[in-house]
């Protein structure tokens, strides 16, 4: 059966899930998303300037994405096995001195999926492949300690908690086909120590993001009422304070 992008399994279209993930992303020149599915996260985030690499083995989804992003020069959409190409992209771009972010949302482990029997992907991962994926990330971080960042989604499991025990761990309550679940996120870096790739989704909830947006709107309104010289004094002060 052909899976349409709108109802693809595992899509990060749940309320606030994609925004929560994007808010953890540090600034990057290259964005790589293996297991991209219908690319909800990629569609909501700010594009990376150098390249945005979307990889999936589902040919129908890739055809859809190629059509959707055909007008962009900095999008690479591939219908390949990520195990064959992910390492190449990482080594090439980090080797060029680019800041590379890899976001992975692989099919979750069967043991943590309450609806595994009813809902399975066209292309699942074996336990061995999950181990290979986690090992690849750890190995590349040792090889490239700078300019390489990993984020991976999943449900909490013994395998992930043990192999990523020195990573940063976050949880978010969401609604899945099997009911309310706790979405887990592991990052190879501390998100609080890096300039974010974008600040559109700062705030843990929609209500919090709206509160921050209203505050920004009020401050901008006050700023626009000042004289040009006063605006420049504030601008220079902010530059010096933030070291930008």
UniProtKB/TrEMBL annotation:
Keywords: Methyltransferase, S-adenosyl-L-methionine, Transferase. Coiled coil: none annotated. GO terms for molecular function: S-adenosyl-L-methionine binding; sequence-specific DNA binding; site-specific DNA-methyltransferase (adenine-specific) activity. One of its GO terms (biological process) is methylation. InterPro entries: MeTrfase_D12, SAM-dependent_MTases_sf. The keyword rRNA-binding does not apply. This is Putative DNA methytransferase. It comes from Sulfurospirillum halorespirans DSM 13726. The lineage of its organism: Bacteria, Pseudomonadati, Campylobacterota, Epsilonproteobacteria, Campylobacterales.
